Structures are given as C-alpha cells and as structure tokens.
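Extended Data, panel c. Modelled sequence:
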Amino acid sequence: MFNQMERELKCLVTKNQYEIIVKSYDFSNPWIQENYYYDTPSNQVKSQGAAMRIRIIGDKKIFTLKTKKDEVTHYEYEKEIDTDSITDIKDEEVLEWISKLNLTEPLVQTLSTKTKRQICRLENAELCADENWFGDVIDYEIEYEYTKDHDGIPIFNEILSKIGIKYKKNCPSKIARANDYILCNKR
C-alpha cells in the first residue's frame, strides 16, 4: 500500500519544448501507462474533488484514489491489485478507501488514456516528462513531483527556463483534460 500526500507542479508544453527538456536531463527509458478512470453515472467521485483509476504498466495493475487537498497537493491512496476491472476488486483495504466516498451508484469506467512517461530523479523531486494520448489528441506535460519537502518552484522555474516559460499554476489534471477533449470532439 502507498498512502501519502502527493505534491506536484505541472505544466503543458509543446512537443518541441518537451523534446528540449527530455534532451537536457538524464531521463529513464520511457514506458507506457494505460489509465482507466472511474466514477458513478452522476459523477459522485468528481463532485467530492476526487479521482479514481486503475493504471496498467506491463503486467502490473495499480489502483489509485486521489483526493484534493489544495492546488498542488493531493492525498493519494495507491495499491497494486490483481484485476483490471473495478467491479472485480476484492482487496479489503481498497474497498475500504472506496467506501469512504459513500457512493450511492455503481462505479463505471468513464475515460481511458495512455501516457508515455520517463523520469529524471533530482535531489528533492522527480522530473516527469509525459506524452499523453487522449484518443486522437496528444499533449505534452512536464511534472515536478516532490519527494522531499522544499520550495520547488524556483527549481522548476530553472528547469522551465530552458524552454522560455515560467510556472504560474498547475495545468488541469489528465482526467480533466481528457474530459475536455471528449467534450470538444462531441461538438
């Protein structure tokens, strides 16, 4: 089980800016993450400022529940599970996390996305470079995920200075962007 506060700074970048950052740091080999998001038909998870997913990386299946604390901090409850279906979860701890949301409707898959992720480990954080697929739409994101408490904004801004931008506030989450792209495609 992994249960902690997740603190991250993140911004959307162009493909060219993404490539500059990736070439400027010692990133790991990339891997693909498939993300399946869940909510009730009336969005009871989202209405509580939460997000729920099952992430698949190779043979690993990881359940994650995030609840928002503030603009850059989330409580994150995460655990490897043995199924890729939300309705087949038998793990008591995961079921307890879900029950704390007091949902009155069944969970259904609402979205799926793919991310090509690579990480560069820094002294107090992990720098993540993500190429995200939302159906036919691709976007690029740079994340500065804290591993120790510190003032990361000056460090993140130093990283972003290589591509001529400055951190102002977090971009929308992947799930929010996926929802936006789907709404745009329905119009």
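The radius of gyration is 17 Å. This feature is highlighted in the accompanying rendering.
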